[in-house]
Amino acid sequence: MLYWSSIRIFNSEGDYYWAHGLISDATYELMNSVCNSSQLWRESITGSRFDACVVVNKRLSVEFPKAFDGYNVIGDTCTSSGESQLDVPGYPFRPKFQFSSSTPPVQAALDQTKDSENIDVCVKEKSSQYLNRKDVQEALHAQLVGVTRWTGCSSVVNYDMLNLEIPTVNIVGSLVSSGIRVLVYSGDQDSVIPFIGSRILVDGLAKELGLNATVPYRPWIEDKQVGGWTQVYGDILTFATIRGAGHLAPLTSPKRSLALFAAFLSGKSLPEALPN
């Protein structure tokens, strides 16, 4: 059951895209009927070419603009960057379904973005510039032998992308079974690892372990605002979303991320909404 759930988690991307108005009804239908996210991913890695997946990939390439951050769908991207952050080779997260150099990539912008807490949309670009300053490198005692430029993505570290489909939920289950509290959280504006998949994972794992909901699905509060939603199983396995957060939740929603993390470390429940 857990392996089936892991595939469903992978394919929750399509559900998220459609529910957030990122793709058309027609493309969503195709992703559910002829070529889903896991197939697109597998073919982009293996180099195989299933005609239906080529069609879906082309539709996604049109419907996803390059100036779009899939890691934070409500965020802006840095427009002043001299080098495109869309074409970083070997990026270890999820280089979206890019079949060839002639196919427009459906890769999320890697620039970090802002939210209500005024995050600098060009922080990634500025960080790169800062860490490439000679005086900074000397102050950090950086080893520069054979390195011409510091980059956020290393070509030295190689990933077997097909391993992304190997389910690891059993590892989480073993932690819970041994009495270790586990928190699985997602920013609700992250389309790369959507909260839909995280929610499916936690619910499926709870059923597998025979854990009942001890805290029903409810909103949690931070600074008198809804910080997200949460559900707890067996007082040991917690699912939570961070409202307004992207893939890098502490960057896009630092206050809410800190509140979530602090509650988890202290073993306390997330603050509840005040009664009406």
UniProtKB/TrEMBL annotation:
- Fetch the SUPFAM superfamilies from UniProt: alpha/beta-Hydrolases (SSF53474)
Q: Which family does it belong to?
A: Belongs to the peptidase S10 family.
Name listed for the protein in its UniProt record: Carboxypeptidase
- A Pfam family annotated for this chain is Peptidase_S10
GO cellular component labels:
vacuole
Q: Name one GO molecular function term.
A: serine-type carboxypeptidase activity
Give one GO biological process term: proteolysis
Protein keywords: Carboxypeptidase, Glycoprotein, Hydrolase, Protease
Query: Which InterPro entries does the record cross-reference, listed alphabetically?
Result: AB_hydrolase_fold (IPR029058), Peptidase_S10 (IPR001563), Ser_caboxypep_his_AS (IPR033124)
